[in-house]
Amino acid sequence: MKTWPSLIAMFFEQAETLGEKPFLWAKKDGTYQSINWRESVEIISGLARGLKSLGINPGDRVMLCSENRPEWPLAHLGIMAAGGITVPAYTTNTVNDHAHILANSGAKGVIVSSKALAKNLVPAAHQTGDVKFIISVDELDLSQSPGPDIHTWEEIVEKGKSEPDNLAEYIASVTREDTAIIIYTSGTGGAPKGVVLPHRAIIHNCRGACDAIGELGLDDEIFLSFLPLSHSYEYTAGVCFPIFIGAQVYFSEGIEHLSKNMGEAKPTIMTAVPRLYELMHARITKGVKAAGGLKEKLFMKAVKLGTKKYEDPASLGFGEKITDAIVDKLVRDKVRGNFGGHLKVLVSGGAPLNAEIGIFFTALGLRLLQGYGQTESAPVISVNRPGLVKMESVGSPIFETEVKIAEDGEILVRGDLLMTGYWQNEDATNEVIKDGWLHTGDVGLMDNDSYIQITDRKKDIIVNSGGDNLSPQRVEGFLTLEPEISQAMVYGDKKPHIVALIVPDEEFAKEWAVETGNSNNLAEIIENEDFRRHVSEAVDRVNENLSVIERVRRFILTTEAFTVDNEMMTPTLKVRRHVITEKFGEDLEALFGR
Q: With CB atoms counted within 10 Å of each terminal CB, which end of the chain scores lower, N or C?
């Protein structure tokens, strides 16, 4: 299997081979237009030399904040070719989020794609003295002011083309242990930590992915990218892996246009998070039910027979095989056509997939493989294989990756896929990497096929159904700073957003009762809509300072304090969430149905 010493060497060698073939596709004037590999080399080379002229030296960090578009991988590769280290930022980050990452990483420059994203990023860049320049892909309409110099993308690329071309010598010197990217991820303490990923970790992932799905035949593949590229999952699976196998990448116009874009791009490989499959499942079943009649009967027959085949391929009788062939043409072909008609595989990762959802799509003729990983492992640890799919599991370890189960059930991982460590945080690094093993914080077991089943989480962290990690303690901490709120617990693991259980501040509640002439009985107070409005306003104030994924959408009030003893007061104790969720779980679940 082909390998390279670095990602940037990999790109330039692939580009030399693929030349005029299309590489990156994006909508322009209503139609998809491509940038080929050779054109990409020119842009990356110009940007790299332009960055060097701005003072970027080997090891300097450059923040990248952009939607999914060709400029994201081009910027990352340009930073890498200049010797810099890319620090991706989520497009949903607040000013404070950006300021923390800029200060913590010591970023020397910033590349931002649009005026909308610059709104939060530029003020953050002004807060730190380390940022020397900002490069904008789109016109920002900002006048120069004290602070970082502002340049346009075209200006720097063109400037770079006139600078000395000394990139080849540097690229040849990059080793597999050098840092390729620093991806910030939430920890249980709340403050995002920078995961330092060397070239070897990401190339190891690419080799592992190629080995896992290689039996499907990889030839001129097409990817459709829509998950945020600042997430390690999409970064590796949606940028690095396509380069590794010489594939084309189409960039979606957004989740609301995904169905149309699938028809246009006709992807052969797609990576997504469980939330997308949940939404698609709901939309498909709703449409079938609305159609009713013969169409609904045929659809349900396709699901029933497909499920039976998944559970035991040899279980269909002669008559069922004939019926299955009929519904394959009448139902499954149409479903496959809605995904572009050329899909070889759908991969689910970033969060746990409901096995029933996976079986539903499998029954409809789509090959869906669930995988597992963490940012600290670049991120893929395991994935189901096409020849053996177990929807309740996350598959077997990828190529040359060791996995073992500790005595307490924790999943431990070792291999070239591991991070170097957390950026400038040796203590945190030593907490998760011990004797060369990554302690994942997840609890699970392995079967006789070495397939991993995750049964629990040791880490007190929420992973929503979109695959985003968020620290509950951070959100709860902000909530309990409000005078109206005494205690709070947020809830939403594997859910599309988070909700909260809130204990109002007793003193505030009783003062409100006196001022408004209401009963001072707490149980009656929390039922009062006017009082609830006051608490809602407090939640709204907190939400203003949170990123989109952290915002509390709905809440319920209770007068029962969470903390029973000193041990239960510790917010990171898993037992706390377990006990509270057991008691209020049904009420919290009901909030998602509103």
A: C
